[in-house]
Amino acid sequence: MTMWLRVFMVGVCLEFAFAFSVQAQPAPPASEPLQNVIRWSTASEVDNFGFDVYRAEQEDGPFTRITQQPVPGAGTSDEPARYEYTDTTIKPGVQYYYYVESISMSGVREKFTPTFKARIKGTLPTTARLEGK
Asked: Is 130 inside a domain boundary?
C-alpha cells in the first residue's frame, strides 16, 4: 500500500510518499523466536531524524513504543529510502497492531503511517485428540 502524507510543522511542509507493510514470517522451528517484520519507505525526507515503531494488542490501543532507539532517518534527502524493524518480542497466537511515528530533527513527533494489523502466527491447535490403550 502506498500513501501520501503531508505534514506542516513550524512553517515547513514535509511531504512523504510511503509504503508500509507488516509481514509475518512462516512459523519457525521451536528453537527460533517468532517475529514480525515492519517495513516502510519514503519518497523523500526533510529534516527527518528517524522513526519509532509502536505496537498494541487491540486496534484502538493502548500502543507502546517497541523501538529502544529510533530507526535512523535520512535527514534531508530527495532520494527514496526503505526502512525495516523486526519485532522479536511477539507471543504465539496474539493479534498485533502497529504504526510508525516520524521524528523531526527538532524532536517533533508525528504519526507517519496508519495503524496496520499483522497476521496472527504461531497459534496452537484448537483441538487435540488423546489416544490410549
From this structure: no
Say which residues have a Cβ less than 8 Å from residue 11's Cβ, sequence separation at least 6. Answer: none
Answer whether residue 90 is part of any domain. Answer: yes
User: What does the block give as the cell for 47?
Assistant: 529534516
Total structural domains in the chain?
1
106-124 pLDDT, tens per residue?
999 999 999 999 887 665 5
The alpha carbons of the chain give a radius of gyration, in whole angstroms, of: 18
82 part of a folded domain: yes
Contacts of 81 (CB under 8 A, 6+ apart): 41, 42, 45, 73, 74
Structural domain range at position 88: 2-6+32-117
pTM: 0.71
